[in-house]
Amino acid sequence: MHSIAVVALDQVVVFDLSIACETFGHAFASDGAPLYEVKVCGVRKRVRSAYFSLEVPFAFPALDAADTIILPGISDPHSRFPASLLDGLRAAHRRGARIASICSGAFVLAASGLLDGRRATTHWRAAAELQRRHPAIDVDPKVLFVDEGTILTSAGASAGMDLCFHMIRRDHGSRIAADAARLAVAAPERHGGQAQFIALPPPVSSDNLAPVLEWMQKNLARQFAVSSMARRARMSERTFCRRFREQTGTTPLQWLLMARIRHAQALLETTELGIEAVASAAGFETALNFRRHFRRISGTSPRDYRQTFGGGRSAD
Predict the structure, then answer these.
(1) Residue 177 and residue 200: Cα distance in Å, rounded?
(2) Cα–Cα distance for residue pair 138/14, rounded to 1 Å
(3) How far is 99 from 176, CA to CA, in rounded Å?
(4) With contact defined as beta carbons under 8 Å apart, do 17 and 8 qualify?
(5) How many angstroms separate the Cα of 207 from the Cα of each of 106, 123, 168, 210?
(6) Residue 51 carries which DSSP code?
(7) The Cα angle at residue 119 between residues 114 and 120, in degrees rounded to 5
(8) Of 2, 22, 3, 18, which is closest to residue 172 (Cα–Cα)?
(9) Residue among 18, 296, 277, 290 at smallest CA distance from 157
(10) Choosing a second label site near 202 at 20 to 30 A (CA), which of 53, 153, 163, 294?
(11) Phi-psi category of residue 309: left, alpha or beta, with phi > 0 → left and psi -120 to 50 → alpha
């Protein structure tokens, strides 16, 4: 079983800590078996957050056996970090462990030197300070997360959830990640400024529009007009568009585009369909149009995405 070590330091951001525990803790195989063993570890048995103290069940030696190490954010990124932790991170990296930071946890990772010469991100409010303190890092404040292989960083709050689901998707494919997202009641879709190989969460639904969204999701290969969506919802087109944005945060056509891209990702991961067949099945009129939208949203080409996530399937 894949071992996850979540590091709890003094001033840990509890939300970031719980994101790592809950997302990986909600990943199950098709037979219901857990796919990850999550351990919270620290330099002391008790650490302080901004609101309460936490009992930490495992000591730092747990890092030695971890396949993945998660560094949640901390309230004060100017803190001095334990030398034993920084040494442990460097040793873990040398043996091939995956290390990821959430929000200001990037400052811990940066202090270890493992971000030098790499592209990374953190919360937008802290990005300039991270760049000032560590000029050898290429800090990108505009993206949700950055995947550098065995080193990953994310922006603040729910971007950490996007990162965790991305890692689950890398490990076990889109279906397991989507199931974990549903169990964890994942945040609405995140689009715009995505980093390379970003995984798209399931499109957001809502009570009032759920039947229409389900109908659209089941018929992605069809060509939709907003007028037909509105008729399905038994609303005027103007009312439908207004309520759609209120309840989903985006337009009907943008929602549909994101659903099609996510469906295409699943087909690239789980089938050997050619790119044109994937484009058609996902509702794109031409393969050229599909490639253009896929690269803009996913940050890579369909072919490269399949090579990364397709589990050895042949690429077009």
Answers:
(1) 10
(2) 27
(3) 21
(4) yes
(5) 37, 32, 28, 5
(6) S
(7) 75
(8) 2
(9) 18
(10) 153
(11) alpha
Beta strand 36-42 pairing with 98-102: unpaired
Instruction: In whole angstroms, give the CA distance from residue 181 to residue 152.
Output: 19
User: In the numeric block, which tokens belong to residue 286?
Assistant: 């031409």
Residue type, 244: F
Give the tokens for residue 126.
């802290």
Q: pLDDT of 12-30, one tens digit each?
A: 999 999 999 999 998 999 8
Element (DSSP H or E) covering residue 5: strand 2-7
What domains sit in the chain, N to C, each tagged with a CATH number? 2-183 (3.40.50.880), 203-316 (1.10.10.60)
Which residues, other chains included, contact 192 with Cβ-Cβ below 8 Å and sequence gap of 6+? none
Task: Measure CA of the first residue to CA of the last residue in the chain; give whole Å.
Answer: 33
Three-state DSSP state, 213: helix
How far is 37 from 68, CA to CA, in rounded Å?
10
Name the token pair of 236: 């005027």
- Its pTM stands at 0.63
- Quickly tell me which residue has 């840990």 as its tokens: 12
- The residue with tokens 């932790």 is 85
Mean pLDDT across the chain:
86
pLDDT at site 6: 96
**Measured between alpha carbons, how far is 197 from 268 in angstroms, rounded to an integer?**
13
CA pair distance 101, 134, nearest whole angstrom: 16
